[in-house]
Amino acid sequence: MILKNRLNITNQIELARREEKISKQKAKQLFDSKGDFRFAPVMYLKQSLEHIDKMAKNSFERIVEKYIEMNITHPFRKGNGRATRIWLDLMLKSAIKKAIDWNEVDKDDYMSSMKRSIVKDIEIKFLLKKALTEKIDNRVLFMKGIDISYYYEGYSEFKTEEL
């Protein structure tokens, strides 16, 4: 069985061929850049963010896929998880009038399902869908969500609502 991929290839041999071709083309581009490899990560980040920006956000499933892609891209040195969880809630609020009630999401379940989401996203979608709420204008819920998001990464000294 072939895992879902961006090229929508279902044949393992064809997928291996395309992987070889693309990776060799990228290696060639790096060489042809006259050895200035400082810009390779910047170009990757730029391309990744452009791809994420173009992704659909018209349903819960598409928004979570966009969220996973941002997690994979990991654009910041620190704070990726916190920033993208807030971003996720704002996208959900804007597009489908829902948000995640992070009080309903177990930290260990979330962290392990996010790690596996790179390969298969059904677990994180299931976990987050169970915690969806329509209380999108509830400031206390949103602030607690930010606190929980920080708690996931070991920060719990301040309460957002008190700042």
Summarize the structure in short.
This protein has 163 residues and is mostly helical.
Q: Overview of this structure, please?
A:
- The protein has 163 residues and is mostly helical.
- It folds into 2 domains: 16-31 and 38-54, no CATH class; 57-154, Fic-like fold (Orthogonal Bundle), CATH 1.10.3290.10.
- It is built from 7 helices and 2 strands.
- It has helices at residues 12-32, 40-54, 60-73, 80-96, 107-116, 122-130, 139-152, and strands at 99-100, 132-133.
- The protein has a two-stranded antiparallel ribbon with strand order 1-2.
- Helix 4 packs antiparallel against helix 7 (139-152) and helix 5 packs antiparallel against helix 6.
- The radius of gyration is 19 Å and the shape is globular.
- The termini are far apart.
- The relative contact order is 0.10.
